[in-house]
Design a protein that fits this description.
- It holds the Pfam family Rnf-Nqr.
- The structure is a single chain.
- 35% of the residues are buried.
- A hairpin with a 2-residue loop joins strand 1 and strand 2.
- The two termini are 31 Å apart.
- The chain is mainly α and 220 residues long.
- The chain has a two-stranded antiparallel sheet.
- It has one domain.
- The protein is globular.
- Helix 4 packs across helix 5.
């Protein structure tokens, strides 16, 4: 995992892309595991939680970056929590107004976005040290990475557990769903499989990057 910058960094494409791969909140840093396992029984739930978390992450990070020179260091964590809680309340009321069924499915995990380590960690370690535009791009990348991870779990669990995706049937009528996939153990099984695949791809990429160097060294 790349180290977070202690000083202002230059805006590059990597500022966004790190959240998708190198610093993916779920598959690399293993943060926010509670909603990842609890609300990914369907694709819709996973997408809704991912977008809600991304909204809170982006808005709170922008406000922290904007106010970073005015927030006293002694109360910075408390200030960040108040900022995050404000946007979580907005999301909570918005989802409740849009769909009561979705609101009931997500349950208390909407309010628990306040305690999501991804959001508070980015506010403290990144947004409080970076300019507004850099923070915006980075938080969008982290939110996209978190949403992608939730969708990866939600899609697999819904397909295997219900035989559907977004409520659309994919298999013949005699298909027997793997009920375990929409139960709590299914979340652990699918997460473990994705972590195995993600780490294999990462190690494969690292071996390709270091392979030619090793060959050259041996040749010498």
């Amino acid at each position: 995992m790349a180290e977070l910058p202690n000083t202002e960094e230059r805006l590059t494409p990597d500022t966004f892309l790190r959240g998708l791969w190198e610093e993916n909140p779920v598959f690399v840093m293993l943060l926010g595991m509670c909603p990842v396992l609890a609300v990914t029984s369907t694709t819709v739930n996973a997408l809704a939680m991912g977008l809600a978390t991304t909204f809170v992450l982006v808005c709170s990070s922008l406000l922290v970056s904007l106010l970073r020179n005015w927030i006293p260091k002694q109360v910075r964590i408390a200030s960040y929590i108040v900022i995050i809680a404000t946007f979580v309340t907005i999301v909570d009321y918005a989802i409740q107004a849009i769909s009561l069924e979705l609101y009931a499915a997500l349950g208390a995990f909407i309010q628990l976005i306040v305690a999501n380590c991804v959001i508070l960690g980015r506010a403290e370690a990144y947004a409080s040290k970076q300019k507004l535009m850099t923070t915006l791009v980075n938080s969008l990348g982290m939110g996209a990475g978190f949403t992608l991870a939730l969708l990866s779990l939600g899609t697999v669990r819904e397909i295997l557990g219900n035989g559907t995706i977004l409520g659309i049937s994919l298999f013949p009528a005699d298909f027997q769903p793997w009920i375990v996939m929409i139960l709590p153990p299914g979340g652990f099984f699918v997460l473990g499989a994705w972590l195995l695949l993600f780490n294999w791809l990462r190690l494969r990429k690292e071996r390709k990057a270091t392979g030619p160097i090793g060959v050259t060294a041996d040749a010498r």
